[in-house]
Design brief:
Elements: E1 4-6, H1 9-21, E2 26-31, H2 37-49, E3 52-57, H3 77-86, E4 91-93, H4 97-101, H5 119-122, H6 125-129, H7 133-148, E5 152-156, H8 160-172, E6 178-182, H9 202-223, H10 229-239, E7 245-253, E8 267-275, E9 278-285
Helix pairs in contact: 7-8, 9-10
The chain binds adenosine monophosphate (AMP).
The site of adenosine monophosphate has 17 residues, from α2 and β5.
Amino acid sequence: MKTLLLNNISDTKKNIKEWKKNGQTIGLVPTMGALHAGHASLIKKAKETCDKVVVSVFVNPIQFGPNEDYDKYPRTIEKDLKICEELGVNIVFAPSPNEMYGNGVKLSDTELTFVCPPYNLIDCMCGKSRPGHFDGVATVVLKLFNIVQPDFAFFGQKDAQQLFILKRMVHDLNLDLTIVPCPIVREKDGLALSSRNTYLSDEERKTALTISKSLNQIKILYNQGIKDTKKLFDAAISILDKSLELEYLEFRNADTFEDVQEINGTTLVAIAAKCGKTRLIDNEII
Ligand code: AMP
């Protein structure tokens, strides 16, 4: 089966309309491309769940801040297409920013309709250092949902805050689809796979590894009975390489996203740190 590479919205909708007419279920895997085994795990899950699978590849300008890596974000569409072909994806939807947002959209465009996620979900973790980021994410994902009309959409637990916000969007806006969360895929040594790992030098990669190690240490101590997040925080900091610039290490109730002092239920432990110029995120559920 040949994977169709489509760049325009109307051709994509046309194909999908045909599938819908035949009663086939549709799975969407939204990505920014530079596909790796983490993305592949989402695609495989989509293939198991749905009759037809659409992978979107779009580096979304409106979710990047002015000093972020929009321009240098890796773009590897030919390689991505090959991976999608091997995995049996039906359509790779790879629109240009122009196709998605119309002529002349700029990163700071104020003439666009945005989705604003609830303040309590964006006033923490990645939302703090990336103002407007989740508005941009929610907006593009809603657009993709409207274009592809999926029955199921697949997202990685790697972006835990994004996943939480998108689930809320689906609930709050009464969207008729199911979000399927997928576990974090890691390298053998524990480093969470990320398209941004390609920015890391060998030396930086070694220091980046202490991010997953520190989360692992929290898990070990928690399993030994330590529930005070201050103690767990300190233990994690002692493992993090000193050259990393910690942005946050937060403990959040996995169901409500509230800040946790003393762990007494399923808890998201989430971290963001800069390794050289590369911003990395990771998390564990304990
Ligand atoms: P991105 O291309 O980074 O926007 O990611 C697209 C989707 O892949 C998102 O739902 C991510 O959470 C997911 N993803 C990225 N890295 C991983 C990983 N290491 N394991 C599982 N899912 C991932």
